[in-house]
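for the recovery benchmark. tokens below, seq after
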């Protein structure tokens, strides 16, 4: 199989990526006929050979057939790539949750201190009233 020979051509011609520049791609892959399809169904009797390779965590598939005067590559139009985790969204959710929990904790703390301060002030006022009452009666 000549799969390795065609990998760079598949990457640069079909997906505009890979190790080759545009000039290298044109120089090395101009003799290839490239067709993009939704699904690969190789006809082994006709000489189709199926190839699979990985590049940048994606799996690419294509098949090729060598005719007398040219080579034909049939490429699966969408590579199989793992879903990219939404790290930015996840980080924003975590940061937002921490901020909300912090604000909730501050609100609870403020309510608790307000209640304690009111009780303490009421006790102070009561003691002050009792002290004034005691002064009058000497």
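predicted aa per position
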């Amino acid at each position: 199989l000549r799969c390795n020979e065609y990998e760079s051509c598949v990457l640069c011609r079909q997906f505009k990526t890979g190790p080759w520049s545009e000039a290298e791609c044109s120089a090395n892959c101009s003799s290839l006929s490239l067709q993009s399809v939704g699904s690969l169904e190789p006809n082994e009797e006709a000489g189709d050979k199926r190839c699979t390779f990985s590049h940048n965590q994606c799996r690419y598939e294509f098949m090729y057939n060598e005719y007398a005067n040219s080579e034909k590559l049939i490429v699966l139009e969408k590579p199989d790539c793992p879903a990219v985790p939404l790290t930015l969204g996840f980080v924003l959710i975590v940061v937002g949750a921490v901020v909300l929990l912090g604000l909730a904790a501050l609100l609870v703390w403020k309510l608790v201190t307000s209640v304690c301060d009111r009780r303490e002030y009421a006790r102070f006022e009561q003691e002050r009233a009792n002290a004034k009452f005691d002064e009058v009666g000497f």
